[in-house]
Design brief:
5-stranded mixed beta sheet; elongated; two-stranded antiparallel ribbon; 176 residues; alpha+beta
Length: 176
């Protein structure tokens, strides 16, 4: 898997300030062009399908819960035969976000933001890209070394090794 340093090619922005007391559900679906860009970003041959459901909840004035589930069909090349391999991937994830109070957002412009705990990510603004966490999780569940069923990498035998002085010395050493 080769994720590039560039931003993910699929985004879906949501303003957390617009979230009331009720849970908000967002369905993510991507076009063929977007899936092609995501596949390139992930370092796979193709992303045949991708869909996700994101649920957002306000749990305090400045604290939000993010839960998502996703499913994707990916095509990768077998590391042994280079034949295309299709796999269905799915997963769930949960995150917490804390929004800085408005006064602190402007005072800290350009400074890194440190979260109060390891489980909560602090946001400088109230706008969240709800697609990125799902794409990050998808990247983590992709098999980095996909192998077709029964595909075996044959290691060269002694007879296949080229003749060189060290190989000849090894053969002499074994005869003793």
């Amino acid at each position: 898997m080769i994720m590039t340093d560039r931003a993910p090619p699929f985004t879906q922005w949501f303003d957390l300030a617009s979230l009331g007391d009720a849970e908000k559900t967002i369905e993510l679906h991507s076009s063929a062009d977007q899936r092609s860009g995501i596949a390139e970003w992930l370092g796979v041959d193709a992303l045949d399908s991708f869909a996700a459901t994101v649920r957002l909840r306000r749990i305090a004035d400045d604290l939000y819960e993010y839960d998502a589930s996703f499913a994707a069909d990916v095509t990768q090349a077998c590391v042994v035969t280079l034949d295309p391999l299709k796999s269905h991937l799915s997963g769930t994830l949960a995150r917490r976000y804390r929004m800085l109070p408005r006064a602190r957002r402007h005072a800290r412009a350009g400074e890194p933001i440190v979260a109060d705990d390891d489980e909560t990510e602090t946001l400088a603004s109230g706008v969240l890209d709800v697609a990125v966490p799902v794409l990050e999780e998808l990247a983590l569940v992709i098999d980095p070394y996909p192998r077709a069923l029964g595909a075996v990498f044959d290691t060269p035998s002694d007879a296949d090794k080229p003749a060189n002085p060290f190989f000849a010395l090894e053969k002499l050493k074994r005869k003793r």
